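agent> call fold_tool(seq_1)
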Amino acid sequence: MALVLGFAAVVATLLGGLFALRYQDKLHLILGFSAGAVLGVALFDLLPEAFDLAGKDYSAPTITLFVAVGFFAFMFLNRVLLLHPEDEAMSPHGHHRQGTLGAASLSLHSFLDGVGIGLAFKVSTTVGVVVAAAVLAHDFSDGINTVSVILKNRGKGIRALRWLLLDAVAPLLGVISTYFFTLTDTQLGILLSLFCGFFLYIGASDLLPESHHRHPKVLTGLMNIAGASVIWLAIHFATL
């Protein structure tokens, strides 16, 4: 059952990414939706899950400290090691590395989604189905987000497609991996809190400003809200 749902996650992610590739001429609107969706995943999915899983062993301030560590670690990589990506004169190689860093982070998150599905099924089938439903609900947006990060950083469609394929297969690989190892709830919660920090940075400092750059602010702003709203609704109804 877990493997079947892993394959379903592959399909959902591919559909989202192909949608983004098909409508590249509306990139600012796709980026707007993607920014809202990434922030929505961080605030409505990763953060609550981190508190639920790690809250037994760590206090709320400690968990938010892990979130901050994730945020500032990603900022350091993005701003220092990638040679100030906010500079318009940054080299194509710099954009390439920035896009790779963002897409790799999203793909690793998708892998952890699969790990979450696999571990949940070890608890019970009911818990596994609930977790899988929540993952499937935002996988379409995951595909959009991965493609958006590559295209935003001047990547070509073929490169975006390669990262999309990796992101799509990542949940399935995550499910398969749980047949060989296990993580405690606390360990998984810490990982999710770190990824919450990563996603807050990607959404607020990368995708969100870019989506509003030289484009109508009202419509793009509505897309930001729509992206976050879709994630909230998906998670809300998946856990009913």
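agent> call fold_tool(seq_2)
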Amino acid sequence: MNIIETGIKDLKIIEPRVFPDSRGYFFESYSKLALEKQGITYNFVQDNQSKSSYGVIRGLHCQLPPYAQTKLVRAIQGTIFDVAVDLRSGSPTYGKWFGVELSEDNKRQLLIPKGFAHGFSVLSETATVFYKCDEFYHPETDSGIRFNDKSLQIDWKVEVSKAIVSDKDLKLQEFSSFKSPFTL
């Protein structure tokens, strides 16, 4: 596995080694041992999957302590623009975001540690997103930031007029109102 630094501490792109042949391809999408050899030592306990259509924006979500989650995200079908926002006070990149295209073709994954808000937009007709979490979901600690927060200025790569956002996500707070429990 190839680990690519993003410029934000602890936020990493993971590229698997793909073995194509006349039948298709093979790759290890996750290897605890391979990641541990590169200093990535999370214990993932829950897998989640969603399917969405073009223009859907999900996020920006996070779980608060004591149930904050690290996520390992990939698109197993279609293409998404995956975004993480640094919510760790004391971080030199606090309030900065990073985005990367994840697709069934590039097979990249984004490792998003605790202390980040996460979201994605769907760039293909449909996309199926699969992600691992190192903590179980606890609805009482569910939180997040509005996807279209003006201070973050995230380019979701979809036309605003075609964006499909849940009522729940439309009610999320602005970044300036978020009282971060995360520190670096």
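agent> summarizing second result for user.
Helices lie at 32-36, 167-170. The longest strand covers residues 46-53.
agent> awaiting next instruction.
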